[in-house]
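Tokens help. One example:
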Amino acid sequence: MNYRKHIRIDSEIRFGKPIVIGTRISVYDVWNRLSNGMSKQDIIEDFPELNEERINAYLAFGG
């Protein structure tokens, strides 16, 4: 999984936290939800800008 096509780090957005390109959703936002037991589908319902590929990119970024 090449996370670079999904994740961007920009000091002007969310204080430089890694985010999904084209949004203000941080990697931490997704990790937090996953660690609290939410499924990928639950997260996609909360953030329609995401899809399973983008969530997997977040996981690859952290791994």
Notes: The chain has a mean pLDDT of 90. The longest strand covers residues 7-8. The radius of gyration is 11 Å.
